[in-house]
Amino acid sequence: MSNEYYQSGEERAAKVNQLFDHIADRYDLINDVQSLGMHRVWKKWLWLLTRPAPGAKVLDLCCGTGDIARLFVDKGCQVTGLDFSEKMLEVARQNHQTARVDFRQGDAMQTGFADNTFDVVTVGYGLRNLSDCGAGLLEIKRILKPGGHLAILDFGKPDNLLLRVAYYAYLYTAVPIFGRVFAGDSAAYAYILESLKHYPAQRGVNDLLEVIGFEDTRIVNFFGGTMSINHAVKPTLSSA
């Protein structure tokens, strides 16, 4: 069954923007409910894997309501949060009022930043929503400094078949109910499973990172790979 918020090709960005504008006010609440609060632990791993020095320039791509951006602000970094949804950015600005983070609207595949700008780029639950993951990763590589770190958190695809079936059943049945109860829209959260079916997930993303030319690629799995982080480093000039 198709999902009203999932479209491939040219309409993808508009549909994703419509989805996140619609759920912005309840986004954090539903994340807490559907993950039992664990999403906050997984997001802390983005800092643990990258560990930028105080004052480092960090881009939180597809920043949503800004909770990942705030993690890096609290570590003394200078952070930019970029998102396509102005409604999500409104929530981010309300929740995180500090001069060390700049929330701005933009396209993850055409950010407008100069080459070699950021020490770290993070993406939390955003790469899966791009119309072209490879194009998004190429843009990230362009704006990362040589030696800069990339960390991507998203839903995964477990290698274990039984676990994958059970996980997909949870996404198919329970998560849309959360969407209906807390956001008044089951399709908005049924979208997660539909988009995951079309997403290369941790292993596919790792392969893309290697093809694009990132180094030191690794996968960190949580709960058997139902959630995962892809981490990679842009080559230094001497190794590129």
Please describe what this structure looks like.
Helix 4 (67-73) links the parallel strand 1 (57-61) and strand 2. 41% of the residues are buried. The protein has one domain (9-233): Rossmann fold, CATH 3.40.50. The protein has helices at 12-23, 27-35, 38-50, 67-73, 86-95, 133-143, 161-183, 186-197, 201-212; strands at 57-61, 78-83, 101-105, 118-124, 144-155, 215-222, 227-233. It has a seven-stranded mixed beta sheet with strand order 3-2-1-4-5-7-6, with helices on both faces. The protein has nine helices and seven strands; from the N terminus they run αααβαβαββαβαααββ. By secondary structure, the chain is of the alpha/beta class. It starts with 11 loop residues before the first helix and ends in a 7-residue tail after the last strand. The protein is globular, with a radius of gyration of 17 Å.
How does the helix and strand content classify structurally? Answer: alpha/beta
What's the N-to-C terminus distance? 45 Å
Overall tally of structural domains: 1
N to C succession of SSEs:
HHHEHEHEEHEHHHEE
Q: What is the global morphology?
A: globular
Q: Tell me, what is the CATH class? A: Alpha Beta
- Which spans of ≥5 residues are poorly predicted at pLDDT below 50? none
Number of helices: 9
Give helix % range: 40-55%
Strand order of the largest sheet: 3-2-1-4-5-7-6
Radius of gyration: 17 Å
What portion of residues belong to β-strands? Answer: 15-25%
The major sheet is characterized as:
7 strands, mixed
Calculate the mean pLDDT score and round it: 93
* The CATH fourth-level homologous superfamily: Vaccinia Virus protein VP39
Please tell me the CATH architecture by its name: 3-Layer(aba) Sandwich
> How many strands in all?
7
Tell me the CATH topology. Rossmann fold
